[in-house]
Every structure is written in C-alpha cells, then in structure tokens.
Amino acid sequence: MRRLSAWAVILSALTASLATPVLAASSQAPVFFRDSEVEDSLRAMAAPLLLKAGLEPGSVSIRVVLSPSVNVYTAPERTLVLSSAVVMGQPPEKVAALLAHGVAHLAHGDMPTLANHRETDEKTTISGIRTLAGLTMIGLTVLSRGDGAESSKAINSYMVADPFPAEYPIYNSGQEAAADREALRLLADQRWPVRGLVSVFQDGGGQDQRADDHQSAFVRTHRLTDDRIGAMRNEAELLVADDGPLPGEVSERLSWAAEKMSALLDPPEKTLMRDRADKSDRAARYGRAIALARQNDLPASLSLLDGLLAEDPSSPFLRQARGRVLFTHADVRAALQDYRSASDMRPDDALLALDWASAANEQADVPAIRAVIPRLEEILSRVAEPDTAGPLWAALGVAYGKCGDDVMASYALAEEALLKGEKSKAAYLGAKAARAMAHSDRHWRRAREITELASAGR
User: Fold this and answer.
1) Which of 71, 85, 338, 457 has the fewest CB within 10 Å, making it most exposed?
2) 206: alpha, beta or left, given left = phi > 0 and alpha = psi -120 to 50?
3) Could you tell me which of 320, 334, 329, 319 has the C-alpha nearest to residue 292?
4) pTM of the entire structure?
C-alpha cells in the first residue's frame, strides 16, 4: 500500500484511509507545506522583528504555501503566510525583508480584502481568507517506495498552477505605505540589510500597467507602482548607513531549510545535479540524502544522514529526517527510534511528536503507543492552531484505539471532527464518549461541551 509521507501533514487525519495520492485534489485549494525545521527557521528569523514591532513571537503562526510566485500576506489569528518561492528561491536578505513587511502588516492589524480578478467586482469581506490561512492541508507523497518520479511530476505540475485561481488578497494603498515604512524601520533597527525589500519590489516592478491576469501574485497582492518603488528606494537610502549583514546563524538555518524544501519539491534528478557528489558542504549533503531517498537508494541516503548526524548529533531535524527515510522505506521499527529521539530533543514541537505518533500507530506497538500518548496530550494542552491541533487529535484518537481505550479514542476524534467542522461526527463521538465517562472524569465536561457545540451548529 502506498504510504502517506510524513514530510507534510494532512489536516483531516494521519490514518491509513488517507494514504492516497492527494496531489490530485482540486487545484483551487492552496497547498500548505508543513515541516518543523522549515517553520522553525522562519520563526527564528521573524522573532526579533516581531519583538521590535511589539508582538510576542509565540503568538504568531508562520505558514508556507506552495506557489511558484513570490508572495507574503497576513491571515486571521495572527498568521503570516509566505509562498514556497520566497523560501526556496530568494536569498536570506530578501526573505528577511519580506518577513519584515508581513510583520509590519500584522503589527498594524492589517487584513487584506479578497479580490476576484476574473470578475469586475471586488469582495469587501475577508471571511474567505480563512481557507488561505491553513485549513486546507495536503500531504506530499514524495518519498514512497517506487513513487519518486510520479510524485515529482505531480508536485511540479501543481507548482505551475495559479496559487489564487479565483481570489487573491490585496491591501489598500494606505496599509501598504505604512507597512513599507515600518518594514524598513524594523530592518534598520536590527541592523539588517534594508535594500532587500527595495530589491524585491524592483523585481516585481513594471507590472502595474498590465492586466491582472498577467501580473505576478505579489504584484496583485501588494499593488506595486513605480512611484511606490521610488519612495521606498529613497527611504532605504536614508537608512542604509545603519544596516549590516544578517546574523550568520539565522542565514544558515534558512539556507538549510530552503535546501530541504527544494530537495523535496524538485525532481530528485535536479537536486542531484545541483548538489553534486563532489560538493561537501552540509546543505548539499542534506539535499542529496533526500533526493537519493526519493530514488530509493536507501543505503546512500542513510550514509549521508549518518555522516551529518556524526557532525551534529544534537540535531532533532537530522534525526527526524533519518526516521522519515526509514519510515517511507518500510522500516517502521527503526524509524520509531529516530522519531522518538527527535521528539525527546524538542518535546514542545508538535510536528516532531506527530511523526513519532504516526510511526508508533503504524507499528501497532502498544508500549510504544503508550509512551507517545502523554507527549501528545501535553502538546495539545497548549496548541491552539486548528491545522496543527487537528492532526494531533487524530493521531491521539488512533493511539487510544490501538491501546483498546475506545472511550478516549471517541473523545479525541470528537475534538478533531469539531476542528474540521464535521459537526454531526463531532456530536456523535462526543456524546458517545460522555455516556461512557464517569462524571468525575476530567474529560467528561469537555465531551459534553463538544456535543453541545456541534449540535447547536447543525
């Protein structure tokens, strides 16, 4: 049976019933790439910008949407969305600049409206942008045995699709002008390169006279004009004396994450040409290890990963990468050890815990499953984002079921169903769990609440 790759998270659940070639899904829905290392590198870069803007870094979610166009925008619940083209295709200085621009919009409370570029009317509400914020998640079957070429073709055919085929978010001119000035200030205050944002704007310049369908997604979202670019250039020149290079660690972590994404999303042949065997830097060996795994050369892939781990044994992401390679090549028991080690290194990391849980559930090893359950429950006591909490509840429900605890399985799956908006299912499972629980059980009240919330909305 084809395995669902753990390189990305699918919102609905991590169960066998979901192990399908999901990239064939409707191209109308944005596809979000979820990876702990990628998101962590972006959070590390964004953190000082957020603090300077008066925002608590832990209160902001950062997501990467698969798109061939450079773009960044805000979404509800303090979510900052970057396109994969930003992470994979831009140098760290430009990524920092785009993050600063997005942070400025967040700090000002800016929410874009949704405009339809195939019709003449402009939508005046932002209710639909919640779909863009991460409630549609698609898994990437990129490491399955024998599926490398097929998956690469599917992914890259999707990547050329318009990321906003019907609607795209836009900011008004006042919001943009304020965000431009604030972004430059944030960069200068950190002594980071201020010309990066001007360079991004210049890359998209000269398109303001084109029809909407012939403009890039970033231009459609941010409405670049020659006057705006000129004003930005003049403002940046006043600040350039105070800027400097990005911190080496921040830049290196982002470059490492970009290499991982490219190795996962590009055809493996392209990665192996870029990261040739004679290139010995760590990022190249990392990318080559992923590409070789996708070509089913397990010994060569593991050899590279083991070498990297020997150099950096405390890296949870390298340990996770090794586990993923083993998992997708059917050595689930060995993968389970790597996943647990990775999660133990970062016990607060939801996506690492999810990998560990999926391997334990796949192995159907009851002691291993019992070991992961407390980790899932502890993380769920803190995690609020639906696109993270949903898969965690699903994994917890499966774990309880495999341990023979049908009551807690029903409860956990009721939580997941409520997050997904499956109200009938949530009401049924919540009521089922509540009936079997003692009134003193700490989950009983919540099970009843789920039932009432789901029933009221039907």
Assistant:
1) 457
2) left
3) 329
4) 0.79
- Beta-carbon count within 10 A of 443 CB: 17
Q: Where are the domains of the chain?
A: 16-248
Tens of pLDDT, residues 292-335: 999 999 999 999 999 999 999 999 999 999 999 999 888 999 99
Is the distance from CB of 260 to CB of 64 less than 8 angstroms? no
3-state DSSP of the chain: CCCCCCCCCCCCCCCHHHCCCHHHCCCCCCCEECCHHHHHHHHHHHHHHHHHCCCCHHHCEEEEECCCCCCEEEECCCEEEEEHHHHHHCCHHHHHHHHHHHHHHHHCCCCCEEEECCCCCECCCCCCHHHHHHHCCCCCCCCCCCCHHHHHHHHHHHHCCCCCCCEEEECCHHHHHHHHHHHHHHHHHCCCCCHHHHHHHHHCCCCCCCCHHHCCHHHHHHCCCHHHHHHHHHHHHHHHHHCCCCCHHHHHHHHHHHHHHHHHHCCHHHHHHHCCCCCCCHHHHHHHHHHHHHCCCHHHHHHHHHHHHHHCCCCHHHHHHHHHHHHHCCCHHHHHHHHHHHHHHCCCCHHHHHHHHHHHHHHCCHHHHHHHHHHHHHHHCCCCCHHHHHHHHHHHHHHHHHCCCHHHHHHHHHHHHHHHCCHHHHHHHHHHHHHHCCCCCCCHHHHHHHHHHHHHCC
The count of other CB atoms within 10 Å of the CB of residue 223 is 16
Which residues, including other chains, have CB under 8 Å from residue 413's CB and lie 6 or more apart? 393, 394, 397, 425, 429
Q: At what angle do helices 316-328 and 350-363 cross, to 10 degrees?
A: 30
Q: Give the model confidence (pLDDT) of 103-123 as tens digits.
A: 999 998 877 776 544 333 333
Task: Tell me the CA distances in angstroms from 397 to 34, 369, 394, 417, one per residue in order.
Answer: 21, 11, 5, 11
The candidate with the shortest Cα–Cα distance to 241, out of 194, 297, 302, 311, is 194
